[in-house]
Design brief:
This protein is α+β, with helices and mostly antiparallel strands. The protein has five helices and ten strands. It has a ten-stranded antiparallel sheet with strand order 8-9-4-3-5-6-2-1-7-10. Strand 5 and strand 6 form a beta hairpin.
């Protein structure tokens, strides 16, 4: 009987292990567990803007510091928060919130270590160690924002994709506008060069014409000095009024 019961227990355990192996292979286990009252546990979230939010219990467990030091372990992907004196230059201020929690503006640290947060994430196992440091594992988070659909049925990711697509369209339009402006400026520059060349040609022609007129006038004066009688007759002929001419086929009556 004892042997039989042992076999049954062993078979049951094997069956349970088989089910667990099948579940782990085909499904993803939700490790954060059920929602609990945030007042009774440590709760820390980090937003896409790099803000780290502490609930009242976490802030109290840290000693309600006015400033903290922030550390990051890139290998373990863990953020460490150490309470610090607010007068130190390299500390991050802790701003109290209306509901009793606190917020830490960690944008610069996230940018420095290239920590990218696409949506609000809650740390599933925030821990305060024996040294009083708050440890936040970026590999153990669950999304608490970004998945909620708006009135038009779009998620935050979809809206972000649309904004990125719109930004690319604006950049293309801006590049086309800049190209059109450059082409127009080049056309105006060519037109100015043409006008400048025309003015130079007109100026050169006017100078040559004035030179020829001066030469003609000089020649006329020389001729008048050599033959004043003929020059006087020529001037008299030029001063006479020209007779009116009748059209062909008509008789002009005086």
């Amino acid at each position: 009987m004892i042997h039989t019961r042992s076999c049954r227990v062993t078979g049951t355990n094997y069956h349970i292990r088989s089910k667990l192996m099948t579940l782990e292979r085909d499904f993803l286990k939700f490790t954060p567990g059920p929602s609990l009252n945030d007042r009774d546990r440590l709760r820390v979230t980090i937003g896409s803007d790099g803000q780290i939010y502490l609930n009242r219990k976490t802030h109290s467990a840290l000693g309600k510091p006015e400033a903290v030091h922030l550390y990051y372990n890139p290998t373990r992907q863990v953020i460490a928060v150490e309470p610090a004196h607010p007068r130190l230059a390299d500390t991050f201020p802790v701003k109290k919130r209306d509901h009793g929690g606190a917020a830490i503006a960690a944008q610069r640290m996230c940018r420095h270590h290239r920590i990218v947060i696409t949506a609000s994430e809650a740390f599933t196992r925030p821990e305060i160690n024996n040294e009083g440091f708050l440890l936040l594992d970026l590999r153990e988070t669950t999304r608490v924002g970004g998945w909620v659909r708006s009135v038009d049925g779009k998620t935050v990711e979809e809206r972000a994709a649309e904004r990125e697509a719109a930004r690319k369209v604006r950049e293309e339009e801006r590049e086309q506008l800049l190209l059109a402006r450059a082409q127009a400026q080049e056309a105006r520059s060519r037109e100015r060069e043409k006008q400048k060349l025309r003015r130079e040609i007109d100026k050169k022609n006017a100078a040559e014409l004035a030179k020829r007129e001066r030469e003609i006038e000089r020649a006329r004066q020389d001729w008048a000095r050599r033959d004043p009688v003929a020059a006087a007759k020529a001037r008299a002929e030029a001063a006479k009024p020209q007779p009116a001419t009748s059209p062909p086929g008509k008789l002009h009556l005086f």
